């Protein structure tokens, strides 16, 4: 009960000083904000793509990948218009694996198999399994897939 009363008091104090806090935070931000591509000419698209990438790794790692992505697919309409064939021609499975690995993607959490068994193990025989295995081999990256 004491903790709740303490929190309540702190919360009330912060609420009453909200405007002052907002001004101080914005002043700090103007001085210390990092120059980041999604803040220059901001757009929803840049923010969404950068957020997806940043869920896997750090800003310094994302920057070159984001630059490449935005050069190839600069907006939602270009991304939506890109056919699977065009996207596959732009990057091989090996390139996708290398890029994802560089971004810190945990491929152990991904499943490509069309016919995984009840335990979630990949069949190793379907087209998806063969393409995945070949992509990891060509990339020189260990495939974390559990095969039956």
Quick overview:
This protein has eight helices and no strands. The protein is mainly alpha-helical.
Write the layout of secondary structure elements.
Layout lengths: L1 H15 L1 H15 L11 H11 L4 H14 L3 H6 L2 H7 L2 H11 L23 H13 L9
Features:
148 residues; 3 domains; mainly alpha; 8 helices
Count structural domains.
Answer: 3
**Terminal Cα span:** 54 Å
Radius of gyration: 23 Å
> How would you sum up the global shape?
elongated
Strand content: under 5%
Sketch the topology as an H/E string, one letter per element.
HHHHHHHH
Characterization of this structure:
By secondary structure, this protein is mainly alpha-helical. It has 3 domains: 1-33; 40-90; 104-148, no CATH class. Helix content is 62%, strand content 0%. The chain contains 8 helices and no strands. It has helices spanning 2-16, 18-32, 44-54, 59-72, 76-81, 84-90, 93-103, 127-139. α3 crosses α4 (59-72) and α7 crosses α8. The chain is elongated, with a radius of gyration of 23 Å. The termini are far apart. The mean pLDDT is 86.
